[in-house]
Amino acid sequence: MTAVPASTGGAAPYGARHVAIIMDGNGRWAKKRFMPRAFGHKRGVDTVRDIARAARDMGLEALTLYAFSSENWKRPADEIADLMGLLRAFIRNDLAELVSNNTRLKIIGDYQVLAPDIVDLIEDAMARTAGNTGTTLAIALNYGSQQEIARAAAKAAAKGEITPEAIEAELDTACLPPLDLLIRTSGEIRLSNFLLWQAAYAEMWFTEVLWPDFTAAHLREALEQFGARERRFGGR
Ligand code: FPP
C-alpha cells in the first residue's frame, strides 16, 4: 500500500467530501473467535469510534454509517436489544467528544419509532452538535433507502412537483454533500437498500476486511483509490 498522509489538513481528502460505509461482518468476526455475535457488535462500535476520528482528522465533510436497517428488525430480539444498547452507550459516552471536536451528529432513517429514551438521546445529541462545523457523522438508523425515496417523493408531490431535484431536496441526506465513495466491508457485493439514490454516481469500494478489523489505513487506501479514479458523471 502506498504511504498516505494521516491528515490532509482539513481539505477534502483525495477530492472526497462524503464517504458512506456499510459496516458488515461483525457476526463473522465474532464467530471466528468462538464468541457471541454481541461481542462482534461491541468491537464494531470501537471501529465506529476510530473511523469517525479518522474521518475528522482527514478532513472529510461527511461520514455516513449504516448502523441499523429497516430490515434489521427481522433479527432475533436479543440481538436487536444488544444493538440498541450499544447505540445508547455510544451516544452517552461519545457525545462529549463529538461536541468538543466539532463533529455534527445527524441521524438518517425513521429513528422516531425507536425506544423513546433513544429518541431523546438522539435529539439531544443532534441539538448539542448542530452548530458544529467540522465533519458530519451521519448514522443511519431504521434506515431503508426505498422507504426514504418514497417519503421524499410524497413530500415533493405535496409541494406540487415530482422532479429529481425536488425529490433530492426531501431526502434525509439533503443536508449532506453529494456522496462520493461507498464502502462495504466483509466481502459482500450489494447495496442492501442503502443510499440507492445517492449512489447514482458514487464510486464503490468493496473489501474482504470484516468491520471490526477495518482501520483508518483501510479508509485511507479506499480514498487513495477513489482519488485515482476518473469520474465522468455520464459525460466523456
Ligand atoms: C453487520 O454485521 C453490522 C450490523 C448489522 C450493525 C452495525 C452496527 C454496529 C457497528 C454497532 C452499532 C453502531 C453504532 C453507531 C453505535 P452482521 O451482524 O451482519 O455480521 P455478519 O454478516 O458477519 O453476521
UniProtKB/TrEMBL annotation:
<feature type="binding site">
    <location>
        <position position="203"/>
    </location>
    <ligand>
        <name>Mg(2+)</name>
    </ligand>
</feature>
<feature type="binding site">
    <location>
        <position position="29"/>
    </location>
    <ligand>
        <name>substrate</name>
    </ligand>
</feature>
<feature type="binding site">
    <location>
        <position position="73"/>
    </location>
    <ligand>
        <name>substrate</name>
    </ligand>
</feature>
<dbReference type="GO" id="GO:0008834">
    <property type="term" value="F:ditrans,polycis-undecaprenyl-diphosphate synthase [(2E,6E)-farnesyl-diphosphate specific] activity"/>
</dbReference>
<feature type="binding site">
    <location>
        <position position="24"/>
    </location>
    <ligand>
        <name>Mg(2+)</name>
    </ligand>
</feature>
<feature type="binding site">
    <location>
        <position position="75"/>
    </location>
    <ligand>
        <name>substrate</name>
    </ligand>
</feature>
<feature type="binding site">
    <location>
        <position position="37"/>
    </location>
    <ligand>
        <name>substrate</name>
    </ligand>
</feature>
<comment type="function">
    <text>Catalyzes the condensation of isopentenyl diphosphate (IPP) with allylic pyrophosphates generating different type of terpenoids.</text>
</comment>
<feature type="binding site">
    <location>
        <begin position="190"/>
        <end position="192"/>
    </location>
    <ligand>
        <name>substrate</name>
    </ligand>
</feature>
<dbReference type="InterPro" id="IPR018520">
    <property type="entry name" value="UPP_synth-like_CS"/>
</dbReference>
<feature type="binding site">
    <location>
        <begin position="69"/>
        <end position="71"/>
    </location>
    <ligand>
        <name>substrate</name>
    </ligand>
</feature>
<comment type="subunit">
    <text>Homodimer.</text>
</comment>
<keyword id="KW-0479">Metal-binding</keyword>
<dbReference type="InterPro" id="IPR036424">
    <property type="entry name" value="UPP_synth-like_sf"/>
</dbReference>
<keyword id="KW-0808">Transferase</keyword>
<dbReference type="InterPro" id="IPR001441">
    <property type="entry name" value="UPP_synth-like"/>
</dbReference>
<comment type="similarity">
    <text>Belongs to the UPP synthase family.</text>
</comment>
<protein>
    <recommendedName>
        <fullName>Isoprenyl transferase</fullName>
        <ecNumber>2.5.1.-</ecNumber>
    </recommendedName>
</protein>
<keyword id="KW-0460">Magnesium</keyword>
<dbReference type="Pfam" id="PF01255">
    <property type="entry name" value="Prenyltransf"/>
</dbReference>
<feature type="binding site">
    <location>
        <position position="41"/>
    </location>
    <ligand>
        <name>substrate</name>
    </ligand>
</feature>
<feature type="binding site">
    <location>
        <position position="184"/>
    </location>
    <ligand>
        <name>substrate</name>
    </ligand>
</feature>
<feature type="active site">
    <location>
        <position position="24"/>
    </location>
</feature>
<feature type="binding site">
    <location>
        <begin position="25"/>
        <end position="28"/>
    </location>
    <ligand>
        <name>substrate</name>
    </ligand>
</feature>
<feature type="active site" description="Proton acceptor">
    <location>
        <position position="72"/>
    </location>
</feature>
